[in-house]
Amino acid sequence: MSVTRRTAVADWACGVLYLFLVLVLLTAAPRASGVLNAVGCLLAASLLAGVVRRRPAAALALTLVGATAVVVLPHRPTAIALTLQGQAPFVSFVAADLALGCIVATRTRRAALAAVVPAFTVQLLVISVFSHGDFLVLNGVIGLLALIASCVVGLLFRERREHAVALRAQEVAEAVTAERLRIARELHDMVAHSIGIVTIQAGVAGRVIDTQPGAAREALRAIEDTSRQTLSGLRRTLVALRRADPDTTAVEGPAGTREDSLAPAPGLADLARLAAATADAGVRVEVHVGGKQRPLPAELDLAAYRIVQEALTNVVRHAGTGDCRVAVDYGDEELTVEVVDDGRGATGPGPGHGFGIIGMRERAGLLHGRLSAGPRPEGGFRVVALLPLPESVAAGAETR
User: Fold this and answer.
1) Residue 77 belongs to what H/E stretch?
2) Range with top average pLDDT, 35-39, 48-52, 81-85, 189-193
3) In this predicted structure, what is the pLDDT of residue 371?
4) Most exposed of 35, 120, 244, 290 (fewest Cβ within 10 Å)?
5) Is the residue at 381 inside a domain?
6) Number of domains composing the chain
């Protein structure tokens, strides 16, 4: 027997047992007070706890039948219970109100309205027919307030659940957007730098191929090296996107070779190679490292490297100068990255001023850092990123 079928059988068994216990309660003790009958009916309704979660409409129908039976079936109250008889039997409708609140909280608004109408009608009829004298208005008001309270609590639970679902959907959407922006930054910083170098080297090779074959060969070699590095970075990025496949540990390289997909991402330790590649593109880079060098978290190391890479790309493509300076300072509480050139500075909006600076600011912002980029008063352009160091790295620096 399947789980669903066993659950359905258990629900029906609990419903039948509930009605049976209500009948036994009313027939075995016909002279019991209304208080005992109502309390016994409520205790028997605990059998419907699972039914309320899975089939609240069926639970509502059963509790309405049980509560109505407690009020309607003939019994002779004792003299002591005569005073309590006016109100006590109607307490059994509390179980029906709880089931109604569950329907309002978990079902559609149409289903909730369809459940409120019969619940209100049954309680109104029973109270109006079987209440007498001063108890008629009192029982009617109490019953109406209990029904309204159950609906209000159900609506509150519904709104809370819908709000949680909306927050979860918003978190998922924000996570997807953040991942898309991260991939866009990686591709932009990686490809823009490499394509800029390849473009310049290709132009050099085209101009000197007839007069200076050696220089043309050097330019082509630089193009080949840069293209290989870019291809490796693209493969690493694509494999990271497919990391959901546990078997994806390596990718096919040129000529059928295998390349490790878990190759480390670039960091500040690769600044010398980055400076050499930029020098091949015609811009000499002076790298100065200050402070006590120490291992950095991977995301911080990668962000600092990408900021330098994008700044150098802008120097190669837009500065119109042959020199620039890169300074990296390992402070006690933050890492400072500065790229300065003596070129013509910013020339205004254009293709070269699209997403590069935006990407650098996003990288710094994700690490709770700050980035400033703009022309210098004395000429040229300056990019400065201040990236806070984690407490563990800063504490290690203070200890040393």
Assistant:
1) none
2) 48-52
3) 92
4) 244
5) yes
6) 2
What is the DSSP annotation of 190-259?
Answer: HHHHHHHHHHHHHHHHHHHTTT-HHHHHHHHHHHHHHHHHHHHHHHHHHHHHTTTSTT--EEE-GGG-EE
Strands (E), 236-380: 250-252, 258-260, 284-291, 323-330, 334-341, 370-375
pLDDT in tens, 76-99: 444 334 344 455 667 788 888 888
d(CA 371, CA 303): 12
Q: Is 156 helix (H, G, I), strand (E, B) or coil?
A: helix
Degrees to nearest 5, angle at CA 49 with 45 and 51: 100
Identify the CA nearest to 252 among candidates 235, 275, 274, 272. Answer: 235
Q: Give tens-digit pLDDT for 9-44.
A: 777 787 788 777 777 776 765 555 556 667 777 777
339 falls within a domain: yes
The whole-model pTM stands at: 0.50
Domain contains 259: no
- Count of C-beta atoms within a 10 Å radius of residue 68: 20
CB 50 within 8 A of CB 14: yes
Burial status of residue 199 (CB atoms within 10 A of its CB: 0-12, 13-18, 19 or more): middle
CA distance 245 to 126: 63
Tens of pLDDT, residues 273-284: 888 888 877 889
**Residues 229/194, Cβ–Cβ less than 8 Å:** yes
Q: 108, 130, 152: which is the final residue of a domain?
A: 130
User: Could you tell me the sign of the dihedral formed by the alpha carbons of 294, 299, 302, 304, in that order?
Assistant: negative
Give yes or no for a contact between 345 and 383, defined as CB atoms under 8 angstroms apart. no
Residue 146 in any domain: the answer is no
- Nearest to 312, CA basis, from 336, 290, 269, 280: 280
334-341 and 258-260 beta bridge pairing? unpaired
Half-sphere exposure of 281 (CA within 13 A, CB side): 31
The CATH number of the domain holding residue 331 is 3.30.565.10
Using an 8 Å Cβ cutoff, are 380 and 321 in contact? yes
d(CA 81, CA 79) in angstroms, rounded, equals 5
- Domain closes at, from 84, 101, 130: 130
Any idea which residue has 């003299």 for tokens? 79
